[in-house]
Amino acid sequence: MRMLTSLGLGSGVEKAGAGVRRWHFCDQQGNLLSETDLEALWDGTGPCIGIERPELQRALLAGLVDVRCRLGTSVTTLVQDDAHVRVGFSDGSTGRYDLVVGADGMKSTVRDLILGTGSPSELGAMTWRSISQMRSIPGPAAIQFYLGDCSLFGFMPIGRGRTYGFNYVVTERFRDPLEGRLERLRHSCIISVRACKSISARSSVTIRSSARQ
Description:
2 domains, 7 helices, globular
């Protein structure tokens, strides 16, 4: 956020997301074990903001002036000389740039083109992620972690009355079919019965992705 603010984009990102002021670590029953004041911890670096990726993209695009932005186009080749990088794109076009930044995820094409291909390493754990329309979870200005036996469940506000949830479980990797996934997710979450009932009553959860390393 400090860098975004220096570029004049910080306020737009803050408006599009939700400020997060504390970390809460809780046990299986929801009892608070410890908390961290993020405003004190990161004083001088800017606020912690929870935000959905499309909203972040829109906030960043608002700061572009006379810059061509293309979606649905990927990098296919990179050739560097002493002064520039020549980039080839999937639509057949090319361009010369001073700097190429690869921020294209775990299966990064940019990384593979520079360093060579390599498969991600298995970590012996899986994560389920969700976004729900849920406004009134306890502590809306906090990231909440519910800690269990070899697992945790977390909540984070991301703006517009929506909440990001994530369930991390230490287990061997397997494919998780879409049918019945939400019910299996509820059973695998080691959180309080009260919190589970609250989620079921007040939110409609949409699973955005399946297992990740």
